């Protein structure tokens, strides 16, 4: 049952999940009984969905290969997330700066003295 219900945790790395997966196979004494392709299918099915989709597309022939691909996909995903975060942070900082400038301009406009037409001196 443990083997059939094993899934990668939300914040769990592929390394940790793979170790738990292999341990579950050995506990169930199924390592030699399960065909390699079935192990790969079960391993990939337990990955987080965004990793599983890409890992599955490589059609791995054994568990070692599937694990290696999943780790590579995870690494690429983390790199992409970091690049997006860095870009987002700089844009967010720029937006905050522009908002502060807008607030300053609003204050300046309020402070500007408005003189009604009838109060102006005729030339």
Structure write-up:
The chain has 123 residues and is an all-alpha fold. It has two domains: 1-73, Non-ribosomal Peptide Synthetase Peptidyl Carrier Protein, Chain A; 82-111. It contains four helices and no strands. Helix 2 (36-46) runs antiparallel to helix 3 (49-56). The model has no long low-confidence stretch (mean pLDDT 86).
| CATH-defined fold name of the largest domain | Non-ribosomal Peptide Synthetase Peptidyl Carrier Protein, Chain A
State the name of the first-level CATH class of the largest domain: Mainly Alpha
- Please give the radius of gyration in angstroms: 29 Å
Shape: rod-shaped
Q: What's the CATH architecture name of the largest domain?
A: Orthogonal Bundle
Oligomer: single chain
Count of DSSP E strands?
Answer: 0
Uncertain runs are: none
Terminal-residue CA separation: 95 Å
What letter string, H or E per element, gives the SSE order? Answer: HHHH
Largest sheet: none
How does the helix and strand content classify structurally?
Answer: mainly alpha
How many domains is the backbone divided into?
2
State mean pLDDT (0 to 100 scale): 86
Helix-residue proportion: 55-70%
């Amino acid at each position: 049952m443990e083997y059939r219900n094993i899934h990668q945790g939300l914040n769990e790395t592929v390394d940790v999940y793979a170790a738990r997966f292999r341990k579950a196979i050995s506990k169930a004494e199924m390592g030699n009984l399960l065909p390699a392709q079935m192990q790969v299918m079960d391993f990939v099915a337990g990955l987080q969905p965004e990793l599983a989709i890409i890992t599955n597309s490589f059609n791995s022939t054994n568990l070692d290969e599937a694990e290696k691909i999943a780790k590579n996909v995870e690494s690429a995903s983390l790199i992409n997330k970091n690049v997006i975060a860095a870009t987002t942070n700089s844009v967010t900082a720029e937006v905050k700066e522009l908002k502060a400038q807008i607030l300053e301009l609003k204050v300046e406009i309020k402070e500007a003295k408005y003189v009604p037409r009838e109060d102006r001196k005729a030339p």
